[in-house]
C-alpha cells in the first residue's frame, strides 16, 4: 500500500486529554491521480488532513482521489459543516462503506459579516464526542475555518489553553486565519460539556 503523504512524526500536540501524545500530521495536499506511473493505487489523504484525537480526524472536502485512503480509516461517520448538498459520488461512497453523514450547514461567510451559529457548533460537538460515531471525519470545504472552529471548541472542552488552541487553528488556516474565528473560540462556553477530563499537561493551565 502506498500512501501519498509523509507524516512528520516530530510534530506533536503538547496538550492532550489523555496521557498518550498523538502525532499530528502536517496539512496535506491532494493528488491529481489515483495511480502512480507503475499503475499502483495511491492512498491520498484529503486536503488539510490530520488526526485530531483517537478516532477523530479532520480535513478539507474529500474527493474521489481520497476515497481509497478514507477506507483505510474504517470511518463510521462524517461530520459535514457546509449547507450545500453532499455530492452524489460522495454519497455513493458513504453508502457503499456504511458511513453515516451528519450535516450541520454553516455558511462559509467572510469577515466582517461573520455569524458562527453556536447552537449548531454545540450539536455537532455532541456527535463528535459520542464514541459510537467513531472513527469520525470532520470536514468543511478547505478544512480551515468551520472545521477549525469546531475543533477549537472541542479543545476548550478538553481544557487546552488558548495559546495551544490558536496555534492549532493557525497551522491550518495560515494566512487565512480570522480574528472572528479566534474570538468565537475564546468566548465559547464549554462548561456544559462535563464528561471530558482536563488535560494533565502544564499547557492546560492559564
TrEMBL record:
Molecular function terms, GO-annotated: inositol-1,5-bisdiphosphate-2,3,4,6-tetrakisphosphate 5-diphosphatase activity; inositol-5-diphosphate-1,2,3,4,6-pentakisphosphate diphosphatase activity; phosphatase activity
InterPro entries named in the record: PFA-DSPs, Prot-tyrosine_phosphatase-like, Siw14-like, Tyr_Pase_AS, TYR_PHOSPHATASE_DUAL_dom
UniProt KW Metal-binding keyword: no
Domain Tyrosine-protein phosphatase: 48-199
Catalytic activity: 5-diphospho-1D-myo-inositol 1,2,3,4,6-pentakisphosphate + H2O = 1D-myo-inositol hexakisphosphate + phosphate + H(+); 1,5-bis(diphospho)-1D-myo-inositol 2,3,4,6-tetrakisphosphate + H2O = 1-diphospho-1D-myo-inositol 2,3,4,5,6-pentakisphosphate + phosphate + 2 H(+); 6-diphospho-1D-myo-inositol pentakisphosphate + H2O = 1D-myo-inositol hexakisphosphate + phosphate + H(+); 3,5-bis(diphospho)-1D-myo-inositol 1,2,4,6-tetrakisphosphate + H2O = 3-diphospho-1D-myo-inositol 1,2,4,5,6-pentakisphosphate + phosphate + 2 H(+)
Enzyme Commission code: 3.6.1.52
Transmembrane segments: none
Protein family (similarity comment): Belongs to the protein-tyrosine phosphatase family. Atypical dual-specificity phosphatase Siw14-like subfamily.
Protein name in the entry: diphosphoinositol-polyphosphate diphosphatase
Taxon lineage: Eukaryota, Viridiplantae, Streptophyta, Embryophyta, Tracheophyta
